[in-house]
């Protein structure tokens, strides 16, 4: 009954708050308004799953719904917490049975501009990715038959009817609603965005940091941090062209390197290549890397500056990115000054978006129920 009550409240809000919207079809598209510099997104939303108000609200409820886990103790939001830009602050996360996965929870941000999901890219669609943790024995460990039965008991059938014009709740529709919510998680009001819009004047250090971040160094001519070679443009995430956004950023040697993308493609050239994550809100999402090995941004910068491990698949952009001339075969180093490291970190802090982590549209709709 509680969920039905919520539906009435939400519908009331949609109609009540804004008199202009009284006649708007509840299935009308939900406005997203991302900045133009993120690139077009019209072709990034699947034709069979447009983002509607009802679908978004249902997806939001499911995202926070503990009934989707085997013992009703965990929801997606247990490992993807809004205050932490939808990560959980842990190196690896325990599922309902207390077993930890091998990789770190990922920040969910601007997912519309990504083509492959998870650290090794095993999912092509947010829809299919969203179903997986529910069934996964080391995550929410729930069967769909049982989850659907519980959702029916909670009164969700009406919500699925309204959102998808569907007779019954299905696994496929759960994935679709969750995907609509997650595609809407757009972060675009950081200081960096305000600066791009001409609303914020960066400090000298932030300005230098931005330039270093996006500059590929040329020894003796141009100093750079080389970050933007892989963390591209204002989104600071990897290329969305196939697996081009997957790189080996020198975390390990051939002896101890994780499989990474090779687990998906079977190609040894892909060993140790991982998805280049967006650095938006990065100051809020420690620890860092797919296994959460670095506690701080300082450690991350030390890694890129003087901690790169050689391996057969180490990325050419790392090998060729240095502020000093290096002999072939030498361990690649950036040779940044202490000031330059501080400046890059100042720029990374500019990517924090307080509005995103406190946006009431993305928060737990059951908060008052202590759910
Ligand atoms: C037990 C913790 C846990 C729970 C619960 C959980 N996740 Fe995750 N999530 C992770 C981890 C860990 C990864 C990285 C997985 C990998 O690389 O194999 C991840 C990755 C993702 C990604 C990929 C992001 C990207 O940029 O590629 C999405 C999307 C996602 N989760 C959505 C969800 C949804 C939706 C739910 C609820 C149905 C959920 N997660 C529940 C821990 C969790
Ligand atoms: C060759 C491409 C490449 C370059 C150059 C590069 N990165 Fe990365 N970055 C990656 C990849 C790939 C990952 C994920 C690696 C993993 O976890 O296995 C990553 C991860 C990170 C993370 C952790 C993100 C998280 O969510 O845990 C941070 C922070 C980061 N990079 C910052 C930087 C900075 C700062 C620079 C420049 C000094 C830089 N990167 C240069 C590809 C690159």
From TrEMBL:
Co-factor: note: Binds 2 heme groups.
Names of required cofactors: heme
InterPro entries (alphabetical): Cyt_c-like_dom, Cyt_c-like_dom_sf, Cytochrome_c_Peroxidase/MauG, Di-haem_cyt_c_peroxidsae, MauG/Cytc_peroxidase
UniProt: heme c 1 binding residues: 76, 79-80
Processing after translation: Binds 2 heme groups per subunit.
Keyword Cell membrane annotated: no
GO cellular component: periplasmic space
Keywords of the record: Heme, Iron, Metal-binding, Oxidoreductase, Periplasm, Peroxidase, Signal
Main location: periplasm
SUPFAM superfamilies, sorted: Cytochrome c (SSF46626)
Single annotated GO MF: cytochrome-c peroxidase activity
PROSITE patterns: CYTC, PROKAR_LIPOPROTEIN
Binding site for heme c 2: 227, 230-231
PANTHER family: BLL6722 PROTEIN (PTHR30600:SF10), CYTOCHROME C PEROXIDASE-RELATED (PTHR30600)
Name of the protein: Cytochrome c peroxidase
Organism per entry: Marivirga arenosa
